[in-house]
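Researcher: Here's a chain I'd like modeled. Treat it as a single chain, no partners, no ligands.
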Amino acid sequence: MTVPPETSPLSGQTVCGKEAHGPLRAFLRTETGSAAVLLAATLAALTWANIGPGTYEAVWRTELSVRLGAGGVSLDLREWVNSGLMTLFFFVVGLEARREFDLGELRERRRVTLPLLAGLSGMVVPVAIYLALNAGHESLHGWGAAMSTDTAFALGMLALFGARLPDSLRVFILTISVVDDFLALAVIVVVYSGALALPALLTALGLFAGVVLVRRTLGMRIPALYAVLGVAVWVALLKSGVDPVVTGLAMGLLTYAYPAERGDLERASRLFLRFREQPTPELERSVRRGISSTLSPNERLQQMFHPWTSYAIVPLFALANAGITISGSQLAHAFTSPIALGILLGYVLGKPLGIIGATWITTRVSRGRLHPPVGWGAITAGGTLAGVGFTVSLLIATLAFDGARLAEAKIGILAAVVCSFLLTWLVTWVIGALPRRSRVRALLGTGTSIVDLSDPVDVDRDHVRGPLEAPVTLVEYGDFECSYCGLAEPVVRELLADFGDVRYVWRHLPLTDVHPNAQFAAEAAEAAAHQDGYWEMHDLLMEHQGDLRPKDLLRYAEEIGLDTERFRKDLREGTGVARIAADVESADLSGVSGTPTFFVNGRRHYGAYDIASLSAAVRAARQRAALQGVGRQD
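Model: Modeled as a single isolated chain. Structure tokens:
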């Protein structure tokens, strides 16, 4: 009998249990923790700078050189952090953006337009406010410090607000942040870089063209080659006078993402079986390579670098740059200076006004063809969250200012973080105080969400349990021998008992490479369906997953009162094979590679499939369906 595993090592597909989470939930949980670490590093930098300002500056101005023959790179520790380690941070931002373009909301390219315009407006308005307050002052050239959203802090705050805001808002904020990062890096290159060394710049461009060529010809089969080329591009940009952090974002965006394919997974299973029979070092390496190749380079690199950037690199950046000496007189002076006020008002007022205004105008001009993925309350909260400008803002401030002006800029940046958090809390409190229907509309809106399920449910063809006209449909791709499906079965039954307006659909995905009896069990279920006994057979198969031999299937047919001769004949003739093959094909078209995988109203459910997680997904789908009905009536 198949024994359910204690924990699931599988990522990228639906996993059971409260401690098992999909990519989105894992990413947000990482951002939640990293926001706390980032805040702690910021407070540590402020404490250090005020207790021992001399030692703080002395440590971060320590020179560190790396030499190879006659050439080398010599930077102080702060520059190594700002231009070196932060390249990895922007690399992870690029990876996440590319994943959304390949697999997420943004794979429908028309959905990029609205956050793109909102991101542009969310930079222009803050800069305009800064320029207005600094007109006629020498500080005018520091306008770049007032425009870019901090991705780590913004997503961390979004995770802290948790259930108060919808998950779809994260993609909107992420896209805006990527637009910010692109333009901010362009501003750094054009406005705040030193004198350009043309030969080194041309070398960097040539090396990057080589990266693109290698990606097109060899794919990502030689990761070390990409690492070497990436480091070479970074050094060439540094020598050219251009801030090299742009290397990270560009390399991340080049790293494609794709779902694991069943063919690759089956090949990995065969390699493991060979290793099980003959455990040699050569086969062990083959197994590792085979398993690794089933996941996209994007997912593997995110798994590798995201914790490091979240928990080490970005907090180290804060520790190196956030330290300023603070006194009452200095604070009083800072908040009367055009630099601090320009940055503070640019972020706290300019960001929300720019993002909300551009979103509203675009929606109106397009007559709803381009609409936000969430409600206007969530868009407002997203606008206030985007007012957190820390990492890139500090980076530009250190390039634009020094001395007392740099201290004023840092005070404005830190004050903007605090005010943006408080303003977002106020917005979510107001939304929470609204009547239920108004609150749901403010959070979710009435727009349609992207559909992941390739073949829509057909009540005349699919096996349906529950009201046929229910507003919410839960589709499961499953395998009768899969222990995870067995764990999910009581959860699904409890869900159907709790909700009277949910219909449940089972589609076959027998994983024959690991479950030898799964295909025959699926054929038995289809043979029972020919005698209107599908669900009775389904329930028995799920209750006896370890007993799926032919004699067991015949016994189950007798238990539920089927005509056993007709049942035998249907099994011999394979009457259900075509139906099962159609389900498998629809699974492949929907990007399903493992079981169980759930879809709620056509949208793939990532995350745990415990009763709380599935219930939350069903409630959200029901609320959205109700709002879409109201929107059509309006």
